[in-house]
């Protein structure tokens, strides 16, 4: 991303509207043969027939076919929706299709089924939903929309096909069978016991403050020298180790240039600052990945290059360990890879192997942390990989096999509770970032365990509280999902003391919760250290 923030969750924002399945809609047989929508291709040059949120317009030159398409413009309080209501006949099946372009685009029917895409790249992609009306249904509203605060999207060739002469040829469609529904009964007790051997502490204090330091780039937060990072920070993640070729496996760590970061320290001063931090018990790690650092270990050669290059960086600078911050398309599950305990996808298997090799090479004191997005972890409660019908985003839950395989080597997992859409918790309710409730629900899932893809015979086991931290943005500038200090304290109260929980009932009390992670030290510095001051005010 231009500002070098962490990437938005690959598709977590889209799932909130995607889980309703079942209720289907049909159109009146008195409509024209096959097609039931008016101006579905927007070739009128306007939005006639549609009711749209503010900002929507028919635009030329960007159509999937013909001349015009609709451009929806989401805002902080609106999804940029366009909707059309039509007459329907009871107990009749129909199909809604559209071509869409952009990120987090939904297609669906009010009160019925919907589908979505987390992103279409530079071109259009098809969306399809099939539905059947209820026994007394006489109207239905179909819609297309984006997601709150996301970029504008395009939609074209929206078509509602039904009986009356045979459908016209719709766009090529993806699998029409929707994902399975989430479990109906939340687990009430931890499904399996945590590892019997104590997890590695990595020499961290009982409650640790973790922050990312912008080391290879500059942005609006300004450059902060490592020596100037206050001693309140227990773990400092140097952001980022990246690769110029995603599938090469070779990681480089190129410190920010003086031209981009005028106040950057020399290599010698930087190395001295690392040693000074370590002499005070602080841990300095290489964070690999980030928003721009896609890493796909597709081959054994890439795996070996990863181990070799990462070892070289760790040795060069004398670091304490690594942080895995794989985002975007770094981790994805192949079709048919359905068991997180026994993964078969090469990028997953090779990453696990590489991390185990590094851990073995450096010993038990080697600090290993991970910073996945909610989409790759907690979303696994509902969806895992491409699903039984290959119709889901294959990145859903893709971190779970890595976390599970490294559970006895993992020092700390701090999921990014930000840049996320609504996520379903163990109460089978959606929780939205920015308040205490989100952090409580997301962390409870990690400390309780959960059935993967709703399968109670396939449980992701709870992590030890000492292995878990909560990831938050340091300020409103740092990313979507900023949480005010009072709400951060409320989440900590609930998770560590089971008080001040609001409406969410946790499945336990975890005073040993390790602490907080933030993006980033630089943004906290920019905001006069609000985040770190609140951390120490709470924990003392």
TrEMBL record:
<dbReference type="InterPro" id="IPR011583">
    <property type="entry name" value="Chitinase_II/V-like_cat"/>
</dbReference>
<dbReference type="Pfam" id="PF00704">
    <property type="entry name" value="Glyco_hydro_18"/>
</dbReference>
<feature type="signal peptide">
    <location>
        <begin position="1"/>
        <end position="33"/>
    </location>
</feature>
<keyword id="KW-0326">Glycosidase</keyword>
<dbReference type="Pfam" id="PF02018">
    <property type="entry name" value="CBM_4_9"/>
</dbReference>
<protein>
    <recommendedName>
        <fullName>chitinase</fullName>
        <ecNumber>3.2.1.14</ecNumber>
    </recommendedName>
</protein>
<dbReference type="GO" id="GO:0005975">
    <property type="term" value="P:carbohydrate metabolic process"/>
</dbReference>
<dbReference type="InterPro" id="IPR003305">
    <property type="entry name" value="CenC_carb-bd"/>
</dbReference>
<dbReference type="InterPro" id="IPR001223">
    <property type="entry name" value="Glyco_hydro18_cat"/>
</dbReference>
<feature type="region of interest" description="Disordered">
    <location>
        <begin position="158"/>
        <end position="207"/>
    </location>
</feature>
<feature type="domain" description="GH18">
    <location>
        <begin position="207"/>
        <end position="540"/>
    </location>
</feature>
<dbReference type="InterPro" id="IPR050542">
    <property type="entry name" value="Glycosyl_Hydrlase18_Chitinase"/>
</dbReference>
<dbReference type="InterPro" id="IPR001579">
    <property type="entry name" value="Glyco_hydro_18_chit_AS"/>
</dbReference>
<dbReference type="GO" id="GO:0008843">
    <property type="term" value="F:endochitinase activity"/>
</dbReference>
<dbReference type="InterPro" id="IPR017853">
    <property type="entry name" value="GH"/>
</dbReference>
<dbReference type="InterPro" id="IPR008979">
    <property type="entry name" value="Galactose-bd-like_sf"/>
</dbReference>
<feature type="compositionally biased region" description="Pro residues">
    <location>
        <begin position="168"/>
        <end position="202"/>
    </location>
</feature>
<dbReference type="InterPro" id="IPR006311">
    <property type="entry name" value="TAT_signal"/>
</dbReference>
<keyword id="KW-0732">Signal</keyword>
<keyword id="KW-0378">Hydrolase</keyword>
<dbReference type="GO" id="GO:0008061">
    <property type="term" value="F:chitin binding"/>
</dbReference>
<comment type="similarity">
    <text>Belongs to the glycosyl hydrolase 18 family.</text>
</comment>
